[in-house]
Amino acid sequence: MILYFTGTGNSKFAADVLAEELHEQTISLNEVMKKGESVTVESDRPIVIVSPVYAWRLPCVVEEQIRKIKFSGDRDIYFVVTMASDFGACEKYCRKLCEKRWFAFKGFCGVRMPGNYVVHDKMPAENAAEQILKAAVPVLKEIAAHIAAGEMITCPSGGMKNAFKSGPVNRAFNKFKNKVDFIISETDCISCGQCESNCPVNNITIERGRPVFGTNCIQCFSCIHRCPTEAIDIKGKTEKNGRYVCPEYLDFKSKMVKTRSR
Ligand SMILES: Cc1cc2nc3c(=O)[nH]c(=O)nc-3n(C[C@H](O)[C@H](O)[C@H](O)COP(=O)(O)O)c2cc1C
To answer: Could you say which of 44, 114, 159, 183 has the lowest number of CB atoms within 10 Å?
Structure first.
């Protein structure tokens, strides 16, 4: 069983490629979070968690879901993270999570994908993003082959620098992640409500036709990237950085890789 979380579609893309290779089903953690239901996952094959890296670790909401979901059956678990460049010491924290939930840690791997940290970076041009996604497909297929063979996957990431990024820096990120100064363009907002329905943590409500943000933001930036009129920004930070959403259909010549939105 493949469980994925995504803000802008990269991890959904990765989950879909793995699912196709492994003939597995996928579960959207976005939907699980959105509905707030308690979920039981039964699987007689290894669990595969696919998620973006946020500040060099799994997003806290993903860690939370792994702690909350009732798993029955196979206790082997793999982690496949998508990232713009580097996952720090994320593997160490995935291992710790396994110890707490009695999972047998089978592996961790980072796959490079287009970056979406719009607060800091300019978003990749369409062509550049497609090249990165195209290069990710054989990497994902190789990961799937290791999973299918039941092999351990290792992606070592020791060192002081990684420990610092995934430790104190990650803690600071999580402490301040909900302090985001969103601004809405009065002229561009069309009151479509997509930001509200795309927010995985129900942090947005539409009031008098405009999105109102709560204090629960996890910085997935789905609202910013998926707004059809680019009406949402973070004051002074995102206005000039563009937008990114993983394309839904990509023709990689050998095969059409189909991904659904969200
Ligand atoms: C809040 C936030 C933090 C991020 N932190 C990292 C990071 O530590 N290392 C990295 O390489 N990429 C980082 N990224 C980039 C994403 O992990 C990467 O683009 C990922 O593929 C996005 O996946 P998604 O489209 O499934 O949301 C970050 C993105 C966001 C929004």
So the answer is: 44
